[in-house]
């Protein structure tokens, strides 16, 4: 496991501490969860983008005809 030092603005840190307290967990857990969610969202966005590009590549002629109408 890696230990990383992160600079967080005071106002965000205060909100993180309050959130962690309300969820009976640690700020570290909140930050790990947020990182996991961000990584999952970006991976999903990349997959959607790749799938969209594939559809446009496979159906290029169809989309061109639709654009001409």
Automatic annotation (TrEMBL):
<dbReference type="InterPro" id="IPR005569">
    <property type="entry name" value="Arc_DNA-bd_dom"/>
</dbReference>
<protein>
    <recommendedName>
        <fullName>Arc-like DNA binding domain-containing protein</fullName>
    </recommendedName>
</protein>
<dbReference type="InterPro" id="IPR010985">
    <property type="entry name" value="Ribbon_hlx_hlx"/>
</dbReference>
<dbReference type="Pfam" id="PF03869">
    <property type="entry name" value="Arc"/>
</dbReference>
<feature type="domain" description="Arc-like DNA binding">
    <location>
        <begin position="6"/>
        <end position="40"/>
    </location>
</feature>
<dbReference type="InterPro" id="IPR013321">
    <property type="entry name" value="Arc_rbn_hlx_hlx"/>
</dbReference>
